[in-house]
Design brief:
It is built from 3 helices and 8 strands. By secondary structure, it is of the alpha/beta class. The longest helix has 16 residues, at 132-147.
Length: 149
Amino acid sequence: MQDIPVFGTRVDGWPHVLRPSAYALVRNTAGELAVVRTPTGCFLPGGGIESGESAEQTIDRESKEECGLALDPGGLLGRAVEYVYSPLEKACFEKASAFFEARVTEVVTAREPDHHLVWMNLDSAIDALSCESHRWAVRRLMEHIQMTP
């Protein structure tokens, strides 16, 4: 069994909320990675898993909402945990995330006007992504690409 890396630090004295999440690593034909730029940072397409929803369904729903991409999730690249403190919500979230390689099946109209799709080469994406677990997932993708004949 593979160890699940943990990023961030639990903040003592604040409630800790478990937040199962799923994210997609999507590359275009040029090999660039889909990154969602928001007012609070840059992230992989995806987000929190809603009740009754699978990780794969989350990736497709969130990606459509955030950046207008309908996705077909492929293989699981890995899982990671990241502690994220939200001053707005006055809580610390334990984001237990699954990261999937995915491909675009359709372009649709995005519904979140303050989210913008940006295509970046993998090294630039690592530099831009706001969460360490997302940067870790991109490095896993790079290893996977190197190992694939």
